[in-house]
């Protein structure tokens, strides 16, 4: 950048800003988001979520409207309205005293809760948000399905059975190897102690009677391990010999 | 000795192939022009090769049958892999316990899958005119073979 021309640097930035404002301003609109489908059980309650994105800050004149179109019907009736910080709930229609406002405009949340569902509540709910001066936008619809019992999604049982059985088998294997490892370590320690005691017994010629009382049990075990060792050696030798004979 | 080893491996691979085919092919029940379960419900029109396939029902019992068939395949594959591991690492005179246990588990899984299916399939399959397909029969055939294979592994001792 040449030091003698400072006025030339701001103008490209200005041009970019102007261009972006001209291009981006028609996209100023409000976008509403809801779930696509909601499942509920008869007699229970269900939450219809509604959120939005607006290019303006959330104003005090923001308004939410929920409309309901029954399944197979053609007309949509308005069941909820929120304006100027005051919610207005349906008090004469089919949703009388069943709607609860749980939204908060500051958090861009326009959700309502419908209590005590019935089969006649099947239908399409439309959430409409207007945030002056940002009023042009698309609404969003959510379809409510009311079941006698809400069906579990496919794959829950499948995954649970596979995961559970594999987990149990893995745990059992781990436990078995742990127990075997501890037992082998104890065996090795015991044998080391026994061999040390045997050496000690050879040097000392039967002086201590206390030790004499203890040794019979240990010697019995030593005899057992010794005999087991020789038996396995014989077996291995026998197999090896038979193999040699075969070959 | 080599012949015995080969025979055991052939048996294991045969069980594995049976399990794979029984799990993957969707022909546990066949009727006039339609074949269903475990994964798809396909029907062909009487005139030609027009197939209409839908997903099988999302019934919990069918899901458990699918899960146990998949588990049996997993256990059998694991057992084969562990057999080759143990063949090279086991001490002389040792037994193929882990291999045998996994193969027996696979057999038990197939049995439970086939049993559950036999008892519960009227819940989602309402057609009264049906007969069992070849995949269902393969599942039942795989059960004793898997058990036999597992028991052979448990009895066998490593020689060299």
TrEMBL record, chain A:
Compartment list: Cell membrane
Gene that encodes it: MPZ
Domain Ig-like positions: 26-143
Main subcellular location of this protein, as a coarse class: membrane
This protein's name: Myelin protein P0
GO biological process, one term: cell-cell adhesion via plasma-membrane adhesion molecules
Residues annotated as signal peptide: 1-29
Assembly with partners or alone: Homodimer and homotetramer.
From TrEMBL, chain B:
InterPro entries: PMP-22/EMP/MP20-like (IPR050579), PMP22 (IPR003936), PMP22/EMP/MP20/Claudin (IPR004031), PMP22_EMP_MP20 (IPR004032)
Transmembrane segments: 65-84, 96-117, 137-156
Xref: Gene3D superfamilies: 1.20.140.150
Location of this chain's protein in the cell: Cell membrane; Membrane
The name this protein goes by in its record: Peripheral myelin protein 22
Keyword annotations: Cell membrane, Glycoprotein, Membrane, Transmembrane, Transmembrane helix, Ubl conjugation
Organism the protein comes from: Microcebus murinus (Gray mouse lemur)
BP-aspect Gene Ontology terms: apoptotic process; bleb assembly; nervous system development
Top-level division of the source organism's lineage: Eukaryota
Function in brief: Might be involved in growth regulation, and in myelinization in the peripheral nervous system.
Annotated membrane topology: Multi-pass membrane protein
Family in the record: Belongs to the PMP-22/EMP/MP20 family.
Any one GO cellular component localisation term in the record: plasma membrane
Coiled-coil segments: none
């Amino acid at each position: 950048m040449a030091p003698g021309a400072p006025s030339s640097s701001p103008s490209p930035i200005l041009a970019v800003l102007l261009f972006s404002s001209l291009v981006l301003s028609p996209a100023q609109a409000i976008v509403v988001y809801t779930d696509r489908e909601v499942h509920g059980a008869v007699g229970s309650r269900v939450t219809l979520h509604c959120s939005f994105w607006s290019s303006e800050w959330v104003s005090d004149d923001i308004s939410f409207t929920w409309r309901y179109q029954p399944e197979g019907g053609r007309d949509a009736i308005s069941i909820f309205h929120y304006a100027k910080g005051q919610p207005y709930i349906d008090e004469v229609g089919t949703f009388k005293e069943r709607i609860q406002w749980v939204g908060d405009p500051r958090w861009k949340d326009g959700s309502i809760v419908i209590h005590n569902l019935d089969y006649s509540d099947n239908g399409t709910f439309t959430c409409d948000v207007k945030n002056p001066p940002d009023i042009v936008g698309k609404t969003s619809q959510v379809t409510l399905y009311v079941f006698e019992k809400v069906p579990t999604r496919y794959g829950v049982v499948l995954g649970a059975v596979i995961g559970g059985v594999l987990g149990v088998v893995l745990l059992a294997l781990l436990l078995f190897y742990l127990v075997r490892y501890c037992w082998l370590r104890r065996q090795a320690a015991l044998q080391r102690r026994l061999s040390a005691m045997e050496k000690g017994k050879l040097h000392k010629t039967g002086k201590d009677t206390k030790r004499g009382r203890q040794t019979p049990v240990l010697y019995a075990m030593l005899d057992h391990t010794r005999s087991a060792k020789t038996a396995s050696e014989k077996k291995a030798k026998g197999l090896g010999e038979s193999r040699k004979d075969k070959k | 000795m080599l012949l015995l080893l080969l025979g055991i491996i052939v048996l294991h691979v045969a069980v594995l192939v049976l399990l794979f085919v029984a799990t993957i092919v969707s022909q546990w029940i066949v009727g006039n022009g339609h074949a269903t379960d475990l994964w798809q419900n396909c029907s062909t029109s009487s005139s030609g090769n027009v197939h209409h396939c839908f997903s099988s029902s999302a019934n919990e019992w069918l899901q458990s049958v699918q899960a146990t068939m998949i588990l049996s395949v997993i256990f059998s594959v694991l057992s084969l892999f562990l057999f080759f591991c143990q063949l090279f690492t086991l001490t002389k005179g040792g037994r193929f316990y882990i291999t045998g246990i996994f193969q027996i588990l696979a057999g038990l899984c197939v049995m439970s899958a086939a049993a559950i299916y036999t008892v519960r399939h009227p819940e989602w399959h309402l057609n009264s005119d049906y007969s069992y397909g070849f995949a269902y029969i393969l599942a039942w055939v795989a059960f004793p073979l898997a058990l036999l294979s597992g028991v052979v592994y448990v009895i066998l001792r490593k020689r060299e």
